[in-house]
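User: Round two. Same drill as before: sequence, then structure, for each protein.

Assistant: Same drill it is. First protein:
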Amino acid sequence: MDKTVKDSTILLERYPHIQETQTLHEGVQVIQSFTHGENNRLKYSELLVINDQNQLVGRLTLQDILQGLDKRLVAVPKAKGFEGKGAEYPNLAILWEESFYLECSQKASRPIRDFMSPAKRYVKGSDSLLKALSMMLYTHETLLPVVEEKRVIGVIRIEEIFKAICSQCKL
């Protein structure tokens, strides 16, 4: 019997998500509330952004948050290569550090939509696990939102697909 995405979905109430009208600070709090283990490690590295009808609006990854805090973090390595602190910029890291922490605290009240990425792909609960896996492998994503009747019901991660396939193949 073929397993569907819905069989392995992490339901929305068990996965970090936030309304599009909320702030970056609230988004960070939501991600940080999903921890596990004795060291309280983050359980997930992104959250879904939804509207008031539970429709998918976007995704917010840890990378989206960190890049959104200071665009210089992305610009410099592309322009100069990334080799650490070079001789031409001996004090650059020190100068940035002060302004970075000041600026990031000022961005806490900005809307989450200023930081999120658009949600380009999703699967339906009735789709096969192999369809979801194929999409993930092709796009190099490890998570896809699961949508039914235009509403987000949860997510499917590559970890759940891996477990289901190993069980089915008796690996």
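Second protein:
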Amino acid sequence: MKTVGSIFSEERKKKGLSLETVASSTKIRKEILASLEAGNWEKLPHPTFIKGFIRNYGQFLGLDTTELLAFFRREYDEKRVVRETKMFLKMSRSLITPTSVTVAISTLVLLLISGYLYFQYESFTGSPFLEVIEPRDNSKITTNEVSVVGRTDSEAILKINGQEIQILPGGAFNISVSLATGFNSLVVTASNRFGKISTVKKVLVVEQPIAVVPEASPSAEIKELDLTVEVNPNSAWLSVEIDSKKVFEGILLSGVSKDFKAKEKIKLKTGNAGSTKVILNGDDRGNLGKEGEAKEKEFHI
């Protein structure tokens, strides 16, 4: 039967890591790592701290921490039952009466129920898991667009710079974010229904991209829609379709602008109309609506 300890031990050995290496990388003492792999819960501090060690060790090895914590709760409860049962049998040898048996069983049941409720409460009211895999912090890039990739709890509310993001099944997310040239700060948050919030911050520097001069076309000039979207003072989620084909869906950070061209029409959706200004063929049309308002707009030749 799989245990938390066996999963840790097998994965560590598979990766060719020693306990000393893991301890140095995770800042978890070697003795604690050994107890985790041996399942010696009684040698470790309060269950809340044990769960924190399991999360950190599991994330370091790239394991599913939700599954690991489920194994831990089962193992911890089973060991508690064994300890309480041994204590009950020891007491029963010295004094066994109908009353003492009833009291002992009732106490044991109460302890089990209390322990189960406590662990459930801890699991549900803790801060949600949040991991941002890409982009790496303090990255220097030459493009004004980046994919934000990561994982969180499937029931969490995910936001990037205040804009709510749709989470994929299983808690994964992958969203395009448009950046301004220079310094950019990404703030990713995951919150649950208890108000607990996990936050990951990333700093990105966009270096001035090399301008590409388009070749002159010998054909006659074609009339086009030329739409510029400017986002300010807050970030905004956008979806853009050009001539019925989606070309962009993601977040524009505050201060970022993006240009779009179409031969027939442009369909624009925004999650924050008050911070979304449009300029159509050089004509400033102003913001699309109120701050925080979701809105959809079409522009035609």
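The longest strand covers residues 182-191.

User: Perfect.
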